[in-house]
Amino acid sequence: MKIYRRYIAREVFGAVLLVLLAFLALFAFFDMLGEINNVGQGGYRLQHAFGFVLLRVPGRVYELMPIAVLIGTLYALSTLARHSEITVLRVSGLSSGALLLGLFQVAGAFAVATFLIGEYVAPPAERAANQLRLKERGRMVGQDLRSGLWVKDERSFINVRVVLPDTRLRGIRIYEFDQSARLHSVTEAEAGEYVVPDSWRLTGVVKTILHAERSEVQKMPEILWRSALNPDILAVLMVSPDRMSLRHLSTYTRHLSENRQTTNRYDIAFWKKVVYPLAAFVMVALALPFGGTHYRGDGVGLKIFAGVMTGVLFHMLNGLFSNLGAINSWSPVLSAVTPSALFLLAAMVMIWWVERR
User: Fold this and answer.
1) Taking the CB of residue 205, how many other CB atoms lie within 10 A of it?
2) Could you tell me the pTM of the whole model?
3) Domain locations in the chain?
4) C-alpha torsion 75→76→79→82, nearest 10
């Protein structure tokens, strides 16, 4: 690698890492504020809240990496331009294409890091964070059992055979115990749907009440069941598609296809996971026309503000196209690639415009 590329790479790496650490500190602070409200519930203490926030850091790194790359590259290039170092390189024969190629080499490292974190670090860390919070708040969740999902709710144990993507339940059994830890009743339901806060509508219900020397069976078409079990708890297993790894997305999409269910949402999430690390290349291309030039009166602060707004817009468009694609059944590849393609095209146009000037 040429000397100027090593120098620029060092400056960009340092700036991106600094911006990323600043963002992580800010988001960790807000996450901690949100967790303070849960401290004191069951066995949930301040140290558990700290653990929860720390376990969510890999997911935050994955989310914030493209924005950090954009702002960090903007800051590094603006600083070099302000000190006339970019001007010296250009006078020495460095073209915008060569400079962009050097930035792409740096972006490649961040793209690989984003992929590895999003695929192997963030998903298990996110699940561990949710389980830590639920366990310490007194709501134990068992998973990966042949009998399905098990949840403890006060003196009841709940077994759910199948949890659907929209959090509807299939094959429910509720074992209720009395204060002496004796089995009081067993309720079986064919299906359950969350209808109002803390309540589920169970259908096809058969309830067996155990008395001292006899049992009583009640059959009901529908009942309203109040429980601490809610979609947030189920989310420990039904991870958001954006948080799932490519391997799990592929497996779950195949399962849905085999059962003739809609897979569009998960297909879009799969391709977003594929494309998202490549956003680092788009971000450095966007930063070049903003930060690679220096005009009298330009301020670094204004460029950083432009970078923040551009990053926020990119993040919003990513979510918008995913939702529109799922609603309108667009091509998953098109829904995932369009935001990055639009921003890359805008970056190329801006670089061309700056070169003409």
Assistant:
1) 20
2) 0.74
3) 3-137+238-356, 141-227
4) -100
